[in-house]
Amino acid sequence: MEQTDISSLLPIIITLVLSLTTRNVVIGLFAGVLTGVFMLNGLQPLDAFGIMVKDHLVPQLTDGYNAGVLVLLVFIGGFVALMEQSGGGQAFAAKVTHWISTKCKAQLSAWFGGIFIFFSDLGTPLIVGPVFRPLFEKLKLSRQKLAFIIDSTSSPVAILIPFIGWGVYIMGLIQKEFTALSLETSDWQAFVNAIPFQFYAFLAIFIVPLVAIKKLDFGPMAEAEAKAQQGIFTGKSQETLTAFTHKNAKPSFVWAPLLVMAVVLVSMLGPLGFPFEKVSGSAFRAALSTSYLFAAMTLLILMAVYGVRNLTDGIAVYLKGMGNMMQVAIILVLAWTLSGIGKDLGTAAYIAEQAQGGFPSWLVPAVAFLLAAIISFATGSSWGTFAIMMPLVIPPPPPPHRLLPLTHRYTPVLARYYLAACLAIIVHLFRKPRSYHQLVQAVTSTSISVPNYRMRY
């Protein structure tokens, strides 16, 4: 029932409006899905809800690809929770601090710690912040500088890694659109090809050692550093968070599970030719799920052996971490459903017609930037911004009679580069949820806004 007119955009418009006004992406996505169901089946509330569940939500859950992504996210959530509650990160960072005697070494160590804790963007402030805060104060480094380093090594690192929660979530959104558009490019290829375009992520990561070595402080950061040199630590937060620690925790709690994960991945994917040959998505997700499970089992055993947590407590933490991924799974399922309904309504075809009617293709990244920035800033959710933006930014194929003389590969190429621009835009600049800033403030005991020390482009 394609209706290639402006009305096909109504579910997306309602999703955007409600997401911005309520600052809750789940509400916006659900309302958009429900609106699409009404448009397809008529304004019959009771029947519409039944149809939405039976014909739209359930098929997304039972789809083989989608189910594999959701299962993988659950395993990742359990593993990340175990890592954060094992005390291993603090033990590893504390071990490193014994060799720190200068300001430059302290900043570089915090930077290295943030990169090493790559498996969770929230894990970086929870683990690195409490360990380095007293060391920074001892060396008369400002809390703002620590907050800046943590902020520069959390999501900028996470967005570059395809096999952690963020990557799996984003690839799930990508594959849904690619499947609908019959594009041969896989979600893995698209994500990896987008990495070189993550300019902000690379600059945010590598500016830290430059600032530390060259002492390139300016603006509010320079003022904070000057006061810290006098023993005055400004901007103290009213709330202070402390990460889990234990006297028996060992640095091996961090590297041993990651080593097991790598060995399992290589053992399962190596015989299939990875990374030199293309591996099917199902095989890759199965290998990742298995590697995360074995890594979690390794960590559970280590914690039990060293007396940090018994198996019962460890499993409880693991299951709670799995449950923490529920909202992410809900957003993902609703985004998949909204995409499918948009296809039934002809949304992609309408956007293609308008784009071919004269909308400059070079403006797409700029428009995506502005729209993504508004959504992310208003809702405080990078996950939700991805879910809303992907169906809009990945361009549909133009009608056959209007193909440009760039061959039939025109669309996948544009999809890849527009996607790269969208990824770089959404995650950075306005990417942090407010709860993240509150977390950084709590673990560093500073209330100064981290973006005050951000480079803008």
Task: Write a concise keyword list for the protein shown above.
457 residues; mainly alpha; 22 helices; 69% helix; globular; disordered C terminus
Structure report:
With 457 residues, the chain is mainly α. The C terminus is likely disordered. Helix content is 69%, strand content 0%. The chain contains 22 helices and no strands.
Provide a compact summary of the structure:
The protein has 457 residues and is mainly alpha-helical.
Shape label:
globular
Order of H and E elements: HHHHHHHHHHHHHHHHHHHHHH
What is the number of E strands? 0
Sheet with the most strands, sense and barrel status:
none
Residue runs with pLDDT of under 50 for 5 or more positions: 398-418, 427-436, 446-457
- Counted by DSSP, the helix tally is 22
Helical content band: 55-70%
Amino-to-carboxy terminus distance: 43 Å
Helix-strand category: mainly alpha
Question: Which value, in Å, is the CA radius of gyration?
Answer: 23 Å
What's the mean pLDDT score? Answer: 77
- What multimeric state do the chains show? single chain
Strand content: under 5%
Question: In terms of topology, how is this protein built?
Answer:
Elements: H1 10-22, H2 25-41, H3 45-62, H4 64-84, H5 88-97, H6 103-116, H7 123-138, H8 143-152, H9 155-158, H10 165-180, H11 187-194, H12 199-214, H13 219-229, H14 252-269, H15 281-305, H16 311-323, H17 326-345, H18 347-356, H19 364-379, H20 382-393, H21 410-427, H22 434-444
